[in-house]
Amino acid sequence: MNTLDHEFYMRRAIELALNVPSLPFGALIVNSDTQVVLAEGWNKSNINPTWHGEIDAINQLAMHHNSVDYSKLVLYTTAEPCLMCMSAILWTGIGMVVFGTSIRFLQGNGWHQIDILAQEIIRRSPHWHCELIGGVLEKDCNALFQSSNG
Questions:
Q1: What are the catalytic residues?
Q2: Rounded-to-integer distance, Cα 78 and Cα 73, Å
Q3: Which residue of 23, 56, 122, 132 sits 20 to 30 Å from the alpha carbon of 70, by its own alpha carbon?
Q4: Tens digit of pLDDT for each residue in 21-58?
């Protein structure tokens, strides 16, 4: 999974985030073997408060690609997954998450976040495996959240 161009896919997540500039959480899911984007999503919490970008991408994946090996998938997201999203990622079995902005950055800029980091959720979920890489195009992702309402 380390052969993927993380910045390339994060740029796409940033593009997806622009669908809702006031809530710039964009996500996509890539097959690490084929490097094909299987699903994309963005925050739709104005419709349903649990419809975060990662949840949108996971739902798109489940609707259109439910027979893939989820452990070979990489989820890219503009911000560190919240407790709900990281738990959904683990239940799904996605093998890697790559994010830009950290929860700590969001909190420091007035965004309401549950104060549990993604790595803590992984650590406390011993029956699942998920690699976590943070800070990819962090400045670009941070800029999304600094210029929106929060």
A1: 54
A2: 17
A3: 23
A4: 999 999 999 999 999 999 999 999 999 999 999 999 99
